[in-house]
Amino acid sequence: xxxxxEYSGNQTLDLPRGKRFHGWVSxxxxxxxxxxxAVHGAPLPEQHTVAITNVTVVDVxxxxxxxxxxxxxxxxxxxxxxxxxxxxxxVQAVRVDGRGRFLIPGLVDMHVHFFNLSSHRPPNDWSFxxxxxxxxxxxxxxxxxxxxxxxxxxxxxxxxxxxxxxPRILAAGIAVDGKSAQDAALQxxxxxxxxxxxxxxxxxxxxxxxxxxxxxxxxRALPVAGHVPAGVTLLDxxxxxxxxxEHLMQAYEACSSIETQLxxxxxxxxxxxxxxxxxxxxxxxxxxxxxxxxxxxxxxLAATGQAQVPTLVLANEDSLDSTSMNADSRWRYLRADERAxxxxxxxxxxAQDAALxxxxxxxxxxxxxxxxxxxVPIMTGTDAPMPGVYPGFxxxxxxxxxxxxGLTPREALRSAxxxxxxxxxxxxxxxxxxxxxxxxxxxxxxxxxxxxxxxRRINAVLVDGRLLRRADLDALLNEAAIGQR
Length: 485
Known about the structure:
Shape: globular
Distance between the termini: 34 Å
Helix content: 25-40%
Oligomer: single chain
Strand content: 15-25%
Radius of gyration: 22 Å
Largest sheet: 8 strands, mixed
Number of helices: 18
């Protein structure tokens, strides 16, 4: 199930189901510093008044399609959204022909990693243009530290100024574990003082520490998100106030007929021992999936309001191999040290891992289907750039996998737009195409409500009202590839 990862709190923590790696060797390229973290690239276009004419607007809340509309953006906000025959387009506006096209809000990846704290490599700023070129205009950064928060602040300012192609960072978290419950609480306070937007927890955190983290975070008005600890049930975590479960952590156990037995076998374990015991149980967990139990758990979970970020792109890794990865046209966008990390990962990917992946994917789909049917909030996230998970591109794969798991295309779109906005309490300014909201928009050449794969047919992207046409997006990708040579 889980093993060591770049994105855990230290070198001995776990990584999401399906991304095992045995014998990890850190790629210590260079210590992260502010001097090496500067992003170099062409600035984004200036903010102009932009009028997208005769376009069909997708209402991500209802799934309805509008008649022909004209949507006008100015100074980074949507200032008009009216039937085209009623539109008054300013003379200075840059016009974009939307006829036959579909307008959706900018997409959001709610689980990304920009920092390499374990290997001390430079940040993953190479991934920024990949998000923008794929219409992913905003992200949630899942694990930083105090130094990282300084960079997050810098990147946010760069976004506001249009200095270079960087997605809007909606939230950034700091991971907390602690040598003791008291130490965990102190770490929460330090994270709050450093400017974290939320506290991240991992699977190996002991239950006592986790409860101390929840209490300290509540006192600092910070949400707690991340892995449900391996010693805690999914429903207990939700009832206690953990805002998200990432990667369906503990959902597999909750949807099995042997959850109590599994957790009893983990009692008094913590750290590596706890994670290793859970990993050893995975085949039993998957074999014991029970549809009726899963439906009942999902209904109870829905009442708590805890959101799920399934990261199905991690669960479905049965096609991961070195031949297909090296032949992938997207390989050229990875920085050299990231390519080496992916290759090292594959060197430790065993036949047992592949067999578990084949078992895991259909169970993950059934769990997501049960949650969808029960009304559990579901949001898109990818864990990019985990091996095989290409930043930006993978969000479209995630939406397609959600549809394969029972969501409608409209629901998958909502999970990538309005659902994150509601979760982050910014729906008044983001998440849909409406007057007053941020002009983070994606213009598509085909209807995504008929086929979710049409979200990949991007004609143009507005990032904070800055217009990038198809040629501009291709230039971003080309520049990204050249930068990694």
